[in-house]
């Protein structure tokens, strides 16, 4: 699973993500802001990674990616994973059904976020964050990359 949200604080969702981790599911969470889940805790969330990418541009996309027995599913939503959004507001979530759009969101959005090593911070098991250090000297800034792609498409 890969989720891209601004906030993750809903206790029920956190419980389900812990259960997924304990069942062997790899979970990557791209959470820009508040996150009450603790990743990489042995026996609880050791298959969960939380990455926060904070850059110049405020983003509002919420993307939920699932790989169910080889079948990919992507949902876009207006809701963050917060009790106030899930329980007390009218929000929308819808599936992305076109395979071209699924590949784009997977490869050109979610995977690009996971490659960021300039503005990305990884949450530690104690809730603190540590900046990612590039494995080689090459840095990758996903917001800069997305802006370059947008400018190229406008030309």
3D structure, described in words:
The protein is of the alpha+beta class and 155 residues long. It has a single domain, classed as 2-Layer Sandwich (Endonuclease, Chain A), CATH 3.30.870. It is 31% helix and 26% strand. It is built from four helices and eight strands; from the N terminus they run βαββββαβαββα. An eight-stranded mixed β-sheet has the order 6-5-4-1-2-3-7-8. A hairpin with a 5-residue loop joins β7 and β8. It is globular. The N and C termini lie far apart (35 Å). The model has no long low-confidence stretch (mean pLDDT 90).
CATH class: Alpha Beta
Percent of residues in β-strands: 25-35%
Shape: globular
Strand element count: 8
CATH architecture: 2-Layer Sandwich
Q: Give the averaged pLDDT, no decimals.
A: 90
CATH level 4 superfamily:
Endonuclease Chain A
What name does CATH use for the topology? Answer: Endonuclease, Chain A
Structural class: alpha+beta
Terminal Cα separation, in Å? 35 Å
State the strand order across the main sheet.
6-5-4-1-2-3-7-8
Given as residue ranges, the uncertain stretches (5+ residues, pLDDT < 50) are: none
Range of helix content:
25-40%
Helix-strand topology string: EHEEEEHEHEEH
Output the radius of gyration.
16 Å
The number of distinct helices, counting runs of at least 4 residues, comes to 4
Taken together, the total number of domains comes to 1
Q: Biggest β-sheet, characterized?
A: 8 strands, mixed
């Amino acid at each position: 699973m890969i989720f891209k949200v601004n906030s993750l604080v809903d206790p029920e969702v956190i419980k389900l993500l812990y259960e997924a981790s304990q069942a062997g599911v790899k979970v990557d969470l791209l959470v820009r802001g508040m996150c009450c889940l603790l990743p990489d805790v042995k026996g609880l969330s050791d298959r969960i990674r939380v990455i926060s990418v904070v850059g110049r541009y405020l983003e509002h996309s919420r993307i939920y990616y699932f790989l169910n027995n080889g079948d990919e599913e992507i949902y876009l939503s207006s809701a963050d994973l917060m009790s106030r959004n899930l329980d007390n507001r009218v929000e929308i979530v819808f599936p992305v059904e076109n395979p071209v759009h699924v590949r784009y969101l997977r490869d050109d959005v979610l995977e690009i976020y996971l490659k960021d090593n300039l503005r990305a911070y990884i949450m530690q098991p104690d809730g603190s964050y540590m900046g990612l250090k590039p494995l080689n000297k090459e840095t990758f800034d996903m917001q800069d990359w997305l802006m370059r792609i947008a400018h190229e498409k406008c030309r």
